[in-house]
Specification:
25 helices
Length: about 450
């Protein structure tokens, strides 16, 4: 058998295997044919098709390009190449191919349809809309056009029009993959969790085991305020796929939000076991560090929080956590620097003023601490702990009336605040003790002068 004849036989065998969806075997045969005759444009295109079916999109694009180099202007191959480039998110390159396809074949509706997608992703929304209306002249019932137009409208903040387009897709093609998810995302962005859940469940009916869709449902459940339901859903995803690190991370953040840092740490440890969280999981080091901080594991929390600060130097919460870590270790001077940094990022942060005041108190700087507590109260008028500590500072510097007024103000806001009530009851004793000390000092001075 000659090499050329063998190549023909293997190409035909590849075609039959494709018809049976035996893609790996088909690739072996078409690879053999192409190795014998690499100048056959049809075989190169067939190889691209098989590679695409196997999910090897980069190689598929290369094969389609080889085919077009051998036989320029083949409309089917140009369309196939444009489509696979869209899959690869190489939108500018896809647009170039599709523009040329439309120039050569003005009646090719798919060339317009796919360009809507490319233009929307490239942010060229006016041209995307123009392309949509051109496509409508060729086929006004194309679900792909309405889907892509919805993406463009949503990106521009025209949520209602986007939803209209996507609902039109469902009318034209009820099983269109991903459109229910898009509608759910639009309603979710609008805060309409009931409708969002409806469309997300509709998407799940067609793909019940899809953990990414289940993850979206769990996130939606969390956002709607059902923390217990979200815990159950994230846990279910982890049962289905123990390596689903996004669910481990989300569950950890949820436990942290619910005041259960020990459980949160267990989830974060699982994330580290499954995947390298740096830099893929935004906020991971912050959440992990804060969970350890809540547990009093300061040595472990510190490097994670420092890493989080390097990731986002503009986050005042991380600066606060670094301050808390140091303050808990009685390093008030060092802690105060982080609270000042938090205030440089957010000058209305009442808690930062309060914590800075505590740092001053620990260093016996009562007037400076009082000033920071008063700043905290100015930004948060119902801040009872700041009022209590301000009253204590006022006692230290002899401002009895101001201290009593501050304590009464605190108790008017929270009558159950025991430290304020106790201090108010003892206030007269402190005043008498202070008066006696002053009297003794006066008598000693008088005695000294007489002597």
């Amino acid at each position: 058998m000659s090499d050329w004849f063998e190549a023909e036989v293997r190409a035909e065998r590849a075609q039959r295997l494709c018809e049976s969806h035996r893609w790996a075997e088909a690739l072996t045969e078409i690879d053999a044919a192409v190795s014998i005759n690499p100048n056959n444009a049809t075989w190169q295109a067939q190889r691209g098709f098989v590679l695409e079916e196997l999910g090897r999109f980069d190689e598929a694009a290369e094969a389609y390009e080889e085919s077009l180099d051998l036989e320029p202007g083949d409309g089917d191959v140009m369309l196939a190449l444009g489509s696979v480039l869209l899959r690869l998110e190489r939108f500018a390159q896809a647009l170039s191919i599709l523009d040329e396809l439309a120039r050569l074949y003005p009646d090719c509706e798919a060339a317009y349809c796919h360009r809507i997608h490319a233009l929307a992703e490239l942010g060229q929304h006016e041209r995307a809309e123009e392309m949509f209306y051109l496509a409508q002249q060729l086929n006004d019932d194309c679900p792909h056009c309405f889907y892509a137009m919805g993406v463009s409208l949503f990106a521009r903040g025209q949520r209602d029009k986007a939803i209209y387009c996507w609902k039109r897709v469902i009318q034209l093609e009820p099983d269109y993959y991903g459109v229910n998810l898009r509608i759910a995302e639009a309603y979710r962005a609008a805060g309409d969790f009931t409708r969002a859940r409806k469309y997300l469940l509709q998407e799940l009916r067609g793909d019940a085991g899809n953990t990414d869709l289940l993850y979206e449902l769990a996130q939606l459940t969390w956002e709607s305020g059902d923390a217990a339901g979200a815990v159950a859903k994230f846990s279910h995803i982890i049962e289905l796929d123990p390596t689903h690190y996004d669910s481990h991370y989300a569950l950890g953040r949820l436990w942290l939000e619910m005041g259960q840092p020990k459980r949160a740490v267990s989830c974060f440890e699982e994330v580290v076991r499954v995947v390298d969280p740096d830099p893929g999981l935004v906020g991971f080091h912050k959440a992990y560090g804060q969970a350890l901080l809540h547990l009093g594991n300061y040595a472990e929390a510190w490097p994670l929080l420092r890493h989080a600060m390097k990731e986002d130097p503009s986050d005042p919460d991380v600066a606060m956590s670094l301050g808390d870590c140091l303050l808990a270790q009685e390093r008030a001077g060092d802690a105060s620097e982080w609270y000042r940094q938090a205030l440089s990022l957010d000058s209305s942060n009442a808690v930062a003023y309060y914590k800075l005041g505590l740092c001053h108190f620990k260093q016996e700087r009562h007037e400076a601490g009082l000033a920071q507590c008063l700043n905290a109260i100015e930004h948060k008028p119902d801040y009872v702990p700041a009022m209590y500590n301000a009253a204590v500072a006022q006692l230290h510097i002899g401002q009895w009336q101001a201290s009593r007024h501050m304590l009464r103000r605190a108790l008017a806001i929270d009558p159950t605040h025991a430290p304020s009530a106790e201090l108010l009851r003892k206030l007269w004793r402190f005043r008498i003790r202070h008066a006696l000390r002053r009297a003794v000092r006066l008598l000693l001075r008088i005695a000294g002068r007489r002597a």
